[in-house]
Amino acid sequence: MRIAIDAMGGDHAPEEIVKGAVLAATEDASLQLTLVGDQKKIEPHLGEVRPSNIQIIHTEEFITADDEPVRAIRRKKQSSLVLTAQEVKEGRADACVSAGNTGALMTAGLMVVGRIKGIERPALSPTLPTMDGKGFVLLDVGANIDAKASHLLQYAIMGSIYAEKVRGIENPRVGLLNVGAENGKGNDLTKKAFELLSQAPINFVGNVEGRDFLTGDFDVVVTDGFSGNIALKTIEGTASMFFSMMKKAFLQNMKTKLAAGMMKSQLKEIKASTEYAEYGGAALFGLGAPVVKAHGSSNARAIQVAIKQTKQMAEKNVTGIIEETIKQIKTDEEEV
Fold first, then answer.
1. What is the Cα Rg of the chain in Å?
2. What is the percent of the chain with per-residue pLDDT over 70, rounded to a whole number?
3. Where are the beta strands (DSSP E) in the chain?
4. Local structure of residue 91 (DSSP, 8 states)
């Protein structure tokens, strides 16, 4: 499996990106990884014995978090991110990973890798933790701020295929983010989307309220990018606040410190179950090949998991199955 990696994207690039690639390459000899970036900055982090299944494409140009996405893709054609996407377009890689500028990766995905025929809008789709430890896929979380009901239908189909093929969930339960769980709730978008999802070839189980996200009752939740991004950031902020409050409470006095010591292993388990590094990156569904956006602050472990996730998407032919499913739905609609 050939995967291209933007070695210069992310808050801790290239060190953590390279170290994550080394972990992945060492664990899985079937991987062929291409690190794209400044060779002089990459090589010091490859270790004393560089894995034979890692190669480097040298470039000193890269896209920053502050760059305007479309302009950066057009002007920085030799940037690590653009060259990473180019590897996929020209068939030298089966998929790619970047922890860099989300908007730029999305733009490169559309302009360089290309979109699946029949997909109107790609979706950015992270996997978030749930109380039962299984997690759920949320899409879209910001690839498209505005959406039509037909877009939400396609998001649901893509998310369902991913949950089944990559996450191993049989007949994944799909929910629609709404202001109430009852049928008929919501605005024009969610009402129209509810009708389409009810007739789609997926296990649609109805509306879901934000407070029920983390219960584990849904495997896939679909919404527009505006609401999805707010929901994602709210969950992240709440988790951060919760752990900060717990830390403050346990450090108040000697009694609470002793309690914290007694619960140390349990607290570590809780923190690990909500750690983004263990859930991989956010897949950009709807593109012509697997493209995964790793968290901007990814450490080596997060990159390793994102690479594994990307490999699974390619091996399970998620892109091909999405394309065939969308094609069949359009054929059925034409026949009707």
1. 21
2. 93
3. 2-6, 32-37, 54-58, 95-98, 123-125, 127-128, 136-139, 173-177, 203-208, 220-222, 282-285, 291-293
4. T
- Residue 308: count other Cβ atoms within 10 Å of its Cβ: 17
In the structure encoding, which two tokens stand for residue 270, read together? 């809780």
As given in the structure block, the two tokens for residue 83 are: 């060259």
DSSP string, 163-199: HHHTS--SS-EEEEE-S-SSTT-S-HHHHHHHHHHHH
**Separation between Cα atoms, residue 296 and residue 144, nearest integer Å:** 19
d(CA 80, CA 78): 7
Q: What is the pLDDT of residues 79-106, one digit of tens each?
A: 999 999 999 999 999 999 999 999 999 9
Tens-digit pLDDT profile for residues 5-14: 999 999 999 9
Amino acid at 15: E
Phi first, then psi, for residue 153 (nearest 5°) are: -60, -45
Task: Tell me the two tokens of residue 153.
Answer: 């239908």
- Preceding peptide of 69 cis, ω within 30°: no
| The token pair that represents 63 in the structure block | 């896209």
Q: Which residue has the tokens 């014995």?
A: 49
- Percentage helix, strand, coil for the chain under 3-state DSSP, each rounded to 5: 50, 15, 35
Closest listed residue to residue 158, CA positions, set 228, 107, 111, 221:
221
Domains present along the chain, CATH in parentheses: 1-119+286-316 (3.40.718.10), 122-279 (3.40.718.10)
CB 183 within 8 A of CB 194: yes
Distance between CA atoms of residues 246 and 253, nearest Å: 13
Give the global pTM. Answer: 0.88
204 Cβ neighbours under 8 A, 6+ residues apart? 156, 174, 175, 176, 197, 198
Q: Among 277, 214, 281, 274, which residue's Cα sits nearest to residue 239? A: 274
